[in-house]
Specification:
alpha+beta; Arp2/3 complex 21 kDa subunit ARPC3; 5-stranded antiparallel sheet; elongated
Length: 610
C-alpha cells in the first residue's frame, strides 16, 4: 500500500514515504494467502453453493484493506471453475459488492459479527436479484441460499482462526481440538480447489480425508481422530455429494487410529484400513461400502512418510494436544530466544573489546572471552532449534581405552602435562602440553595450558578461539618467558573421526594393523607470537587403531635424529594391545636410548579405538 501511495502522491506532494523491506514471515503469509485465494475461489459445496470466496475476502479485509491483492486471485479461481456451478455470476457479483462495501470507511470499523451479517445480506440480496433476472428462482434455490448462509458464517470463523494461527502460531489460549478442526477444514477446502478429481475408484478428496484422519488420530488420540474424521466426512459429503455415512466411517477410523497411536505406524495403518473396509461387509447397507483403494493409499502414504517429516507432524500435533511435549517445546523456544539475546550482547562486547589499536594481551583475552561466549550461546540456540524428537538415544559406534606414562628429569616432577577426558556427549579430548623450562615451573605452565583449554572447550568455546585465548594468557606473562607446546586430538565416538591440533608439538603416530603413520605439523609454541596460526588434520579412525602422542623428550632420545624411525620401530615391535603397557614400554625404550646422557621430560599417551 505504501508503494501505491508513493506512486500517486509523489507528484502531488513531492514526498516519498520510507518503505521497510518485508520480512520472511510476511512474504510467506502473502504467498499462502494468494495460493489459498486461487484454490478456495475454485471450491464449490454441493455444486451450486459457493460462499467460500465471500467468507475469505470478508476475513482478509477485516485484517487490512491492503489484503485487496487477494481479490483478483479469487476471481480467477472462480472463473476457472465456472463449469462446476451454474450460478457463478451471482456469486461473482456478490463478491465484488462485498469488496466495495468492506473498503468503505464506515464499514471497515465493524466488528466480526456485524461484518458477517453485512456479507450475508449482500450475498442473499445479490443472488436473489440474479435468480429473478435469470429466471432461476425456485424453492430449491431458496433452500440452497439458507445453506449458503450457514456455511458462510462457519467459514468466516474458520478463516479468522486460521489466519490467527498463521500470524501468532499455536498457543495454549485456544481449545486444541478447535485448532485441529480449523486446520483440517482448511486442508480439505484447499484440496477441493483442485476439483473432484477421480482416477477410477480413487478420489483425491477421499485420499486426503482418510490421510488427515489417520494422521490426526495417530498424533492426537481417539477423541481428536474421531472428531477430525466426522468433520472430514461432512466436508467431503458437501463437496463430492458422497454418502452421509462417510462421516461416521471416518469418525470410527480416526478413533481406532488414536487407540493404536502408541504402536508402530504400520500397525496403526493396518488397523485403520481394516476398520474402514469392515463397514462394507455389512449386508444390506451398500451406502457403507468404501472403495478399498482410498484408505489403502492413504495408509501407504502415512507409513512411507519420511521420518523427518513425520517428526515435524508429531511436533505440530503435540502443540495441538498441549501435552508434556508442548510445554517442553514452549520452554525450549523461550530459552532459545534468551540465548540469542545474550549471544548478540556478547558479540557486541567482543567488538568493543577489539577496538583498533596496539595489541595488548589483556584486552585480547577479554575480547576473545566475549566472542567465545557468544559463539557458545549461538551453538546452544541452534541445538534448541533442532526439531524435537522423542526417539531412541543415539548409540556410540566406538569406545576408547587410554594409557599414560611419564618420566620427570628433575626431582621426579615432569614439566609435561596431559589430559584424557570427554568434553561433550560422544567427543573425547586427548591433550599433551610441554612447558618450557624444568621442574615445577614448567609443570605449572603446561598444567595451565591443558586445563584452561579443556575448560574452555567443555564450556562450548570453539577450539580456535580457545587456543587464541590460551595464547593471549601466556603472552600476558611474557615477562616470565612462559610458553608451551600443545598436542591434542578430538575423537568423535559416533563417527570415529579425529581432529588433531599441533602447536609446536612433536611427531604423533597412528598404528593400524602392521603399519605406523607419522603425523607432523610445523608451528611455534603458544605464548611466543600474538596471533598463533591454528591448523588441524582430520582423519578417520577404525576399530583397532592406536593413536600415540609423545612429547619431544621421546623423539630426542636417540641423539642426532628426529626420533621418527626409532619410535616407529618401537611401536611396531610392541605386540600388546593394552594402551598402558604400550605407553610404559615406549618410555622404557626412550630411557634406554638416552643411556648416560641427561634425560629430558618424557610423556606418552596411547588411545586404543575399540
Amino acid at each position: 500500500m505504501d508503494n501505491l501511495k508513493n506512486a500517486f502522491l509523489k507528484g502531488k506532494h513531492g514526498k516519498i514515504k520510507d518503505i521497510a523491506l518485508p520480512d520472511k514471515h510476511f512474504l510467506i503469509r502473502i504467498a499462502v494467502s494468494l495460493s489459498l485465494a486461487f484454490l478456495l475461489g475454485r471450491t464449490a459445496l454441493c455444486y451450486p453453493v459457493k460462499p467460500v470466496s465471500i467468507a475469505l475476502i470478508t476475513v482478509l479485509l477485516m485484517g487490512s484493506k491492503a489484503n485487496i491483492y487477494a481479490f483478483p486471485f479469487l476471481c480467477i479461481g472462480m472463473l476457472s471453475a465456472a463449469g462446476t456451478s451454474y450460478d457463478y455470476l451471482g456469486d461473482l457479483a456478490a463478491l465484488l459488492i462485498c469488496v466495495i462495501a468492506f473498503l468503505l470507511p464506515g464499514v471497515r470499523k465493524f466488528p466480526t459479527a456485524l461484518r458477517s451479517l453485512v456479507a450475508a445480506a449482500i450475498m442473499v440480496c445479490v443472488k436473489v436479484v440474479y435468480y429473478i433476472w435469470a429466471g432461476l428462482l425456485f424453492i430449491y434455490d431458496g433452500m440452497s441460499m439458507a445453506l449458503d448462509l450457514l456455511i458462510l458464517f462457519a467459514l468466516i470463523y474458520v478463516f479468522k482462526e486460521f489466519f490467527r494461527i498463521l500470524d501468532k502460531g499455536i498457543g495454549s489460549d485456544r481449545n486444541p481440538l478447535e485448532t485441529l478442526i480449523v486446520l483440517s477444514v482448511m486442508i480439505l477446502l484447499t484440496a477441493g480447489g483442485f476439483g473432484v478429481i477421480q482416477a477410477g475408484p480413487v478420489s483425491l478428496l477421499g485420499v486426503v480425508a482418510f490421510f488427515i484422519t489417520l494422521t490426526a488420530g495417530y498424533g492426537v488420540g481417539p477423541a481428536g481422530g474421531g472428531l477430525v474424521g466426522i468433520v472430514a466426512g461432512f466436508i467431503i459429503m458437501l463437496m463430492a455429494y458422497d454418502t452421509p455415512a462417510l462421516a461416521g466411517i471416518l469418525g470410527c477410523c480416526g478413533a481406532v487410529a488414536g487407540i493404536f497411536s502408541e504402536r508402530q505406524r504400520l500397525f496403526a495403518g493396518i488397523c485403520f484400513v481394516g476398520t474402514a473396509l469392515s463397514f462394507g461387509l455389512l449386508k444390506g447397507f451398500p451406502e457403507l461400502y468404501t472403495s478399498i483403494y482410498v484408505p489403502v493409499i492413504a495408509a501407504i502414504i502415512f507409513v512411507l512418510l519420511p521420518g523427518r517429516l513425520m517428526d515435524q507432524l508429531i511436533k505440530l500435533l503435540s502443540l495441538l494436544r498441549q501435552d508434556d511435549s508442548f510445554y517442553e517445546l514452549t520452554a525450549r523456544k523461550k530459552v532459545k530466544e534468551r540465548l540469542e539475546e545474550y549471544a548478540a550482547l556478547f558479540s557486541k562486547l567482543a567488538l568493543t573489546g577489539g577496538i583498533a589499536g596496539s595489541y595488548h594481551p589483556a584486552r585480547d583475552i577479554m575480547a576473545l572471552q566475549f566472542k567465545g561466549m557468544s559463539r557458545a550461546l549461538e551453538k546452544m540456540a541452534r541445538e534448541l532449534s533442532c526439531e524435537y524428537r522423542p526417539l531412541k538415544a543415539r548409540s556410540r559406534r566406538y569406545e576408547l581405552r587410554t594409557g599414560m606414562a611419564s618420566y620427570g628429569k628433575e626431582g621426579r616432577i615432569s614439566g609435561d602435562s596431559c589430559l584424557c577426558a570427554p568434553v561433550s556427549e560422544g567427543e573425547f579430548l586427548i591433550a599433551l602440553s610441554d612447558g618450557m623450562g624444568q621442574g615445577l615451573k614448567a609443570a605449572e605452565e603446561s598444567t595451565v595450558t591443558v586445563n584452561t583449554l579443556f575448560n574452555l572447550v567443555k564450556a562450548g568455546f570453539e577450539v580456535e578461539l580457545a587456543l587464541r585465548m590460551v595464547n593471549s594468557i601466556l603472552l600476558q606473562k611474557s615477562d616470565d618467558e612462559i610458553f608451551s607446546t600443545l598436542d591434542m586430538g578430538f575423537i568423535n565416538l559416533y563417527t570415529g573421526r579425529v581432529r588433531i591440533f599441533k602447536i609446536g608439538a612433536a611427531i604423533s603416530f597412528i598404528k593400524r594393523a602392521n603399519g605406523v603413520k607419522a603425523i607432523k605439523m610445523s608451528a611455534l609454541p603458544l605464548g611466543i607470537i600474538e596471533k598463533v596460526p591454528v591448523e588441524s588434520i582430520s582423519m578417520q579412525l577404525k576399530k583397532g587403531d592406536e593413536l600415540i602422542i609423545v612429547s619431544d623428550g621421546i623423539t630426542e632420545a636417540e641423539k642426532g635424529t628426529d626420533g621418527l624411525e626409532w619410535v616407529k620401530s618401537a611401536i611396531l615391535e610392541i605386540r600388546s594391545k593394552d594402551p598402558q603397557t604400550m605407553a610404559d614400554l615406549i618410555i622404557n625404550r626412550a630411557v634406554q636410548k638416552y643411556g648416560l646422557r641427561k634425560k629430558d621430560d618424557m610423556t606418552v599417551i596411547v588411545a586404543l579405538v575399540q
